[in-house]
């Protein structure tokens, strides 16, 4: 980059930080982060819930250690190229030959289904998703174009590059049971939480008030590469660049806040719990996300993601 360009960017980073255009939502103290690092690159948040972070996204494992063949369930399937890492984590936790009873999808975005086909075939496992998500999983429909203008971060700016074409897992795909149960995961129920995608679901276990929120509520500012890198905890609506229906998204947030969860494990960011969670959830439910995510530009006309980029590389 020419000296002038670099200088301009430095000026932006140093002097033009404007809280008005911040799309940070509800900050959480680091003390809200929960979970214990165990082997297999896993973080355990309950005796029968663990997750693994794969770059920018999480996958969750439901089931007790050593559960054995068909004794556990995988939630979502990470980025393309992560099949081996997911399988290794599963083998570590449940046994070297332990296949899941099912793979459950919160939704079909590329960062949640990247290893799906490979894993479903390897494990001969059924895949369950909400019927409204099926067109994106049977090769029929692409997700709407990403909106790079929202959120003001590098992840948003890059979002037109993210794959949005459908995958094709027709042979193994089933609708989630209409009674709200989750195959292979007794005690859990699924809840339709559209907005981010039409067939997005969250998973809820009332006995310990644990919420697997998918992308309906996330715990980092996913639009920002800096926040994604540091995993700074905050309660946050769905990743903005990929959310076409804000009215539904806000309704889904209110639905999930109304459950009064004690623990949240989301698709992006760290698992969180503790006394700060419910007030923060109420604050999030009160936000007008749609207006927060109008395109943001700094006064010099340079896109806000430049600042984010600088934060990431410095
Ligand atoms: Zn998503
Ligand atoms: Zn996601």
* Structural class designation: alpha/beta
Q: Count the DSSP helices.
A: 10
Give the overall silhouette: globular
Tally of domains: 1
CATH class wording = Alpha Beta
Pick out its properties.
disordered N terminus, 15 strands, globular, 5-stranded mixed beta sheet, alpha/beta, 8-stranded mixed beta sheet, 10 helices, binds zinc ion, 314 residues, Metallo-beta-lactamase, Chain A, single chain
Question: What can you tell me about this protein's structure?
Answer:
With 314 residues, the protein is an alpha/beta fold. The chain has one domain (28-313): 4-Layer Sandwich (Metallo-beta-lactamase, Chain A). 26% of the residues lie in helices and 17% in strands. The protein has 10 helices and 15 strands. The protein has helices at residues 3-15, 83-94, 110-113, 116-123, 154-157, 225-230, 246-257, 277-285, 289-292, 305-313, and strands at 26-27, 36-37, 43-46, 49-54, 57-62, 73-75, 102-104, 127-129, 173-175, 189-192, 201-205, 210-214, 234-235, 263-266, 272-273. The protein has an 8-stranded mixed β-sheet, with helices on one face. α1 packs across α10. The protein is globular and about 50 Å long. Residues 1-21 and 296-302 have low confidence and may be disordered. The structure holds zinc ion (ZN) (2 copies). One zinc ion binds next to α3. Residues 57, 109, 111-112, 215, 239, 267-268 line the site of one zinc ion (ZN). GO terms for molecular function: hydrolase activity. Residues 56-268 form the Metallo-beta-lactamase domain. It holds the Pfam family Lactamase_B. Keywords: Hydrolase, Plasmid. It comes from Paragemmobacter aquarius.
